[in-house]
Fold each of these.
Amino acid sequence: MKIGNIDLGPRPVALAPMEDVTDPSFRLICKEQGADMTYTEFVSADALIRNIAATTRKLHIDDRERPTAIQIYGREVEPMVEAARIVAEAKPDILDINFGCPVKKVAGKGAGAGMLRDIPKMLEITRAVVRAVDIPVTVKTRTGWDHENRIIVDLAEQLQDCGIAALTVHGRTRSQMYTGRADWEMIARVKENPRLTIPVIGNGDLTTGADVEEAFSRYGVDGVMVGRASIGAPWVFREIKSHLAGNIYTPSPAEMFALIRRQIRESIDRIDEYRGILHIRRHLAASPLFKGIPHFRDTRVEMLRADTFAHLDDVLNRVEVLLGENGGSPLAAQ
């Protein structure tokens, strides 16, 4: 699959953009684990043009993680154009426009998935951003605002006509948020449209190599994007890529603990001890490494309340010993 002149190879698997998740350290780890492409956290156009420090920091890209896309969102043409030009100066490989974020503070103000209620404005922004920069511009969106307005098949053509180089479709409507099942049949309809020539990337409910295999073989997408399944589990990319290659890879607890500890240390180094640990708690809470351990509730609470590296590392050491005593995996501990 190619986006502009960027060749991602056959059946690429990308790390989805996720706010408070896809920081530089996590992106690089996922790249090392097999992600073919990474995306930054989404960047507010308004905050970027106001030079808000917390926003401008999101533009940092480590060359080792490339190819990387910086994703922006906004609801007005001129701020999006100005933000796109600022982003281009940071030299990402791709600029992605977020028309899919469903959360109230974004979509409720008309940005993100809110643009699905104002298609003329969405198209105006897309055309203007494409004209404003010399790097490939892509779009990530949803199937529609709600079940009665699943417009993605026609919208995909309209976005292509605006000049985008690829389209990512999350198989849910905005009204679904992250509930229910992603509609991969709808994603397949987008891909099957003979008038659509740009790559179509599918997103939604991809958690295993078998899921990704089906996305390619049954639904025909050009690429896939993995999001929530990677939180606290960056090794999922190695599992998926191994499956696609016809192999079986299951990370050992030692490998998983090593990656979790690396995330903690690098989060602390990037921010500071207290806020770095706060940032990483989402990964700890979601990680499958801690699923299925019997009588784990009190230890889990302690782990998620630890506010120093020494305390958190002590908890992890105890859990690692516990798993070792019970066969080396959470399932074995049962």
Amino acid sequence: MHIHHISNCPLCGKQEFEERFTCRDYYATGETFHLYECKECHFLFTQDFPSQSYIDKYYCAENYISHSDTQRGLVNKLYHIVRRFMLKRKSALVEKHSKGKRLLDIGTGTGYFAQAMKQKGWEVTAIEKSPQARVFAQKHFGLKIDAPELLDSYETGYFNVITLWHVLEHIEDLPQMWERLKEILHEEGTLILALPNPSSYDANHYKQNWAAYDVPRHLWHFTPATLAKWASLYGFTVKKQIPMPFDAFYISMLSEKNESKTFSTLRGFWRGFLAWIATRRNASLSSSIIYILKKQK
């Protein structure tokens, strides 16, 4: 298996790192991976992760919900309930921050968000790596979902909005992705990113067992500070940060399960509630954050 070893920080280029955690792959293999932090810019990343040509087996688990759409178990049922709520919130957010109706959704999964926007009259283009998820979207919604290779074929400045809902952390070549996003987004367009937050209340509580580290599928771990640095590096400005407090409930339940705790769902719900309170006091402690970005003038 080809391993991607990081010698220079992809954000600042420095070579001095320190290990933060050793995390386990709880979904597919049980293997362990190491999280390192750059001493200069504090960007956190998964070290020695499998390259894209070998990483597919880490997504081939029936309970990897964004690809399988499974409803087995209480936690996954709760995920679907929250998703229905969040679809309305996401679509309203997109419409609020756009001056046009051309949308690109990268990493669309099983297509629920793309379908919701299509029903609202948007011209929707969607990309998904997983063939299984693309088949689901075609079968259930009649959506044509592009493979990632087609990203290079889109017209410069074409899209009014580009969304990546919990996707950027999966992309191996971050610089290439940032450059391409800048190219195909309209000058007045909006880039919307949703990302797990490793400086959140629940991440600080669960440490290496925090489910949103999700190694090795999550390669990069963005705090609000490091995401802002990435954005600036590629000509974007973070205009707004919106907390996603419901994510803490789902992530905490999974994290309790990772710790093999009894009554993990109940414990996770309580921890999610505490995280919700913490987030109301300080939005930067949210388990996940939505970032609204615009091109720098």
Amino acid sequence: MLSAKRFLLLLLILSLPFPALPVVDLYEFDTESQRERYNVLIDELRCPKCQNQNLAGSNSQIASDLRRELHRLLIEGKTDREIKDFMVARYGDFVLYKPRLQGSTLMLWLFPLLLLAGGAIALIMIIRQRRQTNAAVNDKSLSDTEKSTLNQILDESEESSSQ
């Protein structure tokens, strides 16, 4: 018979949620190259429902439907380009992890380059400003009066420290 502690422990364990395990779709392919293309495409295509998951990592119903559709298109002999065009026509550019270079995605492709160029320009300006500041500081040399006063102070401090 189960003791009260063991019974409560068993109840606690059974009440804990089980981790969501990924769904594994088992599809039959005519060739190994079709299987490889399928694996590449489910990594390259994004789930329309999920914010940032590819078809391979998503457990949503739409991702499952898209994997099934992808399998059907591969068996029909469609090329990768035709498959991607079909998915984009149906779900928009969002379905591609690497969107095509076109007018609507131009800023997406150019923004990192603009950001990099802006950072390089800012770095160059900071370096020039520091060089100018250092040159201005180095150009200010002491007058003869200031040098003699400084030497007197140094001599006095040496005398007082030696005593």
Amino acid sequence: MSMENGWNRKIVLEDGSVYYGRGFGGGGPRVCELVFNTSMVGYQEIVSDPSYTGQIVVMTYPLIGNYGTADDDFETKTPTIGGLVVREYNDNPSNFRYTKTLSEILEENHIPGIEGVDTRMLARSIRDHGSRKVLICDADLPELEAAALLQTTQLPRDQVARVSCKKRWYSRTSNHRCDVVAVDCGIKLNIIRSLNARGCNVTVVPYDTPAQVIEDMKPDGVFLSNGPGDPEDVQPVIELVRQLRGKYPICGICLGHQMIALAYGARTYKLKFGHRGGNHPVKNLKTGKIEITSQNHSYAVDADSLAPAGLEATHVNLLDGTVEGLACPRDRVFSVQYHPESAPGPQDSGYLFDQFTAMMKEGRTHA
């Protein structure tokens, strides 16, 4: 492919299809899982969400980068997304809050981006054929070399170990009312902000922290975070739930939701192309209300496996019927598949943090 037309980067799929475009951000080559996201805003939060570790994300909204990035909006300090594919990239942001361009953030963190791609065609390919391996590289990389890279590169299964903190850290708030231990499997900072806003001091611990260490902290509740990859690969947290359930209120979001299900003996499975975006309608089975939710996950909990495991479904996705929430009231355990802390939105589900804090306060009363 000639460089004269501006194409200097390409993405190559396992079926041999190639999409050319212009590079921005960091360089390649890199092999990742290819997924798409339907959000219209929030690309900074997407790029900095640890749940996208090892994934190249196709943005279906056609214009990305137009409001830059702001220091206060990151979901993690060091983004680990695999790469970004957009239709049109804007490198001249119009936003009084912006401090860096999106390309500068990607370049600083060695994350490749590509623009000029037919993202509509690519998203339809993912929808029809499912998420799969993809290579992002320079446009002049020979076809045989690209195919060999795709074939020989194994997608990692240690994403949680890579993004979890290496030692505990604290996020405190004034006049706190509850102490929460948050197990970091790739936690988004807005989860911590949401807990702080409700009077919770948060101690963030690595994913492989032993149960006894958490018990020695005497928390009012335990929170299981979102994160990347297959929940079955995160055995330390699954075992942690088995040891702590019934002792403290436990709340999980996204990967945390799936690991709670596995800890009780329910099953999970991989979706064809996952849920990613801010427009998923979810029905609360307790109230009958419909919440518009933000989602980011490849795996789901098998609905038929809940009852034998002693769990009940609390929320359901109205698009495909997948389980979006579960609970074990006896053990004071509940979780949701979607993101109630989502920024920049929607914000229909913030009540779940209130539910968790109320559960912790009630536990203090009866202690």
